[in-house]
Design a protein that fits this description.
By secondary structure, the chain is α/β, with parallel strands linked by helices. About 45% of the residues lie in helices and about 10% in strands. The strands form 2 sheets. A 7-stranded mixed beta sheet has the order 7-6-8-9-10-11-12, with helices on both faces. The protein is globular, with a radius of gyration of 26 Å. Residues about 1-35 and about 130-165 have low confidence and may be disordered.
Length: about 550
């Protein structure tokens, strides 16, 4: 049974807090009757989650305890939670209780230099007390046979160095990263370009010897930009390919599936190609980090540009977006931005299309309702490049002088190519907000990116999406370099949160913190000219 043998009832501050949790966890005389229902088992495990989390959370602050040992206890307790839960909602609820308790344990320690000796002793006692890996059958739980759980193999002694193989996706030779994105379907170029940018950054560091002698390897899986396929792709990478973490996933509706999967496994989910609020909680999820400005920031920049610079009334602006949750979010952001500018909610016009298609007929029908008085003069487009190009093609002649703005998710290079095929009048003046500087610039960051792309992928043209992937990968590389050879997810998260004022030559500094997991909040403005090339514009 779980037993904390070194008990102190008069300890000050942190030690007293943890000791109370230890005393409640010790012995586990939380006997369940032989006829215990699943709900009773869940209640027992929920109580344990709040007690054990304090001990494990405090221990995670101590450098002498190898992170794989701490993670091993957490992982085994997650198995107990799963087996004790009657359904998914109950399991998630108990996991959240454990997460809160882990956080309380981490935050309660104010002086690790002094308090870690006690924390390590309590953790070792907890670790040694674990004797089985599964929750016993209710009928077997009694006062004489208390519940306990254990790792699949003996834990190393505190003095032993954790082998690299103990960390999921990390070996002595490599660190495996996973990426889920569209490599088929109408958005496949987004997936291809994001992977290209990450591979470029990885190749550059690998040629220099890797990180602490380990090569960085990216393994991609295709979900076709369909959320129904995302979970299988995430599982394939984690279970079969044994990836360490995820980087550069593409898609907003798919992120709503992918991020929870990564969070449940405490795997880093970094630099997704989406500005969705799903990945921007307050406070932020510990394992989710973003490079780019959010969807809200891009759309608000577009609304301000149309109202302040182009002098339009909010009622003259429509929104074209996917007919799904992503489209709902985008429309809501526009409404909110208009409300700030004094417009009423009922003035916004929403135009929709089915995700994965280029059928804009419903949007045209809706737009026609405002045709009589020529009310709509601009469309904020939040969609893929093919759907965007199709809408521009179908409305260019019907509504002369219409202003089109797109967010960066559109795929800037692909949109330009689609419009160039239609002719100069279709591309001229089309605005795209960007989360990276112009790829035809001459800043140190852009020159380094172009040189690396040309070296490792000759013939590939510079692209806004691949540049974003390249920047995101370099942020992770910088965090990895700070850690050294003893790599695990918790150390990587801590290293990322310590990055402040990083100057990569982008024209804006990049920073993370415990309360901010988004590196950049800057939005750049670009517009296509008649030749289909992007020119910088001022959004303010």
């Amino acid at each position: 049974m779980i037993s904390i043998t070194r008990r102190q009832s008069n300890l000050p501050g942190w030690s007293a807090t943890i000791a109370r949790g230890a005393l409640l966890a010790s012995g586990l005389a939380l006997a369940v009757p032989a006829t215990a229902a699943p709900g009773d088992k869940a209640a027992v495990v929920r109580t344990l989650a709040s007690r054990v989390g304090l001990i494990v959370g405090a221990a995670s602050n101590c450098r002498n305890l190898q992170r794989p040992r701490v993670q091993n206890v957490v992982d085994k307790f997650a198995v107990v939670i799963k087996e004790a839960s009657a359904n998914e909602a109950e399991r998630v609820d108990i996991i959240q209780q454990l997460d809160r308790s882990l956080g309380d344990g981490r935050r309660a320690m104010t002086n690790p230099e002094v308090e870690c000796a006690q924390a390590e002793r309590q953790f070792v006692d907890l670790e040694r007390s674990i004797v089985t890996s599964a929750l016993p059958d209710p009928g077997a739980i009694s006062a004489a046979a208390p519940m306990s759980f254990a790792p699949a193999q003996p834990a190393p002694t505190p003095a032993a160095a954790a082998p690299s193989s103990a960390v999921h996706g990390v070996t002595d030779q490599e660190i495996r990263f996973g990426m889920v994105g569209p490599f088929s379907g109408p958005s496949k170029q987004l997936g291809r370009q994001m992977k290209l940018g990450i591979d470029t950054a990885f190749n550059r560091v690998n040629e220099a010897g890797g990180i602490s002698g380990r090569m960085l390897r990216l393994i991609a899986a295709d979900d076709g930009y369909e959320p129904s396929r995302t979970l299988a792709a995430m599982a394939q990478l984690y279970d079969k390919e044994q990836v360490f973490c995820y980087i550069g996933n593409v898609g907003t509706p798919t992120a709503a599936v992918a991020a929870p999967y990564a969070l449940e496994r405490r795997a880093l989910f970094f630099g997704a190609f989406t500005g969705t609020p799903v990945l921007r909680h307050d406070p932020p999820d510990r394992y989710v980090f973003n490079y780019r400005a959010g969807l809200t920031e891009e759309i608000e920049a577009s609304v301000r540009y149309l109202v302040k610079v182009r002098r339009l009334q909010p009622r003259q602006i429509a929104v074209f977006a996917q007919d799904d949750a992503f489209g709902e979010v985008a429309f809501g952001v526009v409404v909110k931005a208009m409300r700030i500018l004094g417009a009423s909610d009922d003035l916004a016009l929403r135009l929709s299309y089915k995700r994965g298609s280029i059928d804009v007929n419903d949007a045209l029908t809706t737009l026609a309702t405002r045709k009589a008085n020529n009310a709509i003069k601009a469309v904020i487009i939040v969609g893929s490049y093919r759907a965007s190009a199709k809408l521009i093609e179908k409305t260019n002649d019907l509504y002369p002088g219409m202003i089109y703005t797109n967010i960066s998710f559109v795929g800037s290079s692909e949109l330009a190519e689609e419009l160039k095929l239609l002719g100069p009048r279709y591309s001229n003046g089309v605005v795209v907000t960007q989360v990276v500087p112009a790829v035809d610039g001459y800043s140190s960051a852009i020159l380094e990116y172009k040189a690396s792309l040309a070296k490792y992928f000759p013939g590939e043209a510079p692209d806004y999406v691949s540049l974003e992937g390249y920047i995101g990968a370099n942020i992770v590389i910088q965090a990895l370099k700070q850690i050294g050879p003893q790599l695990d997810t918790e150390r990587l998260v801590d290293s990322l949160e310590s990055l402040r004022g990083v100057d990569m030559g982008l024209g804006t500094s990049l920073s993370f913190g415990r309360s901010d997991h988004q590196a950049s909040h800057k939005v750049w403005g670009t517009a296509l000219d008649e030749s289909g090339k992007y020119q910088a514009i001022d959004l303010e």
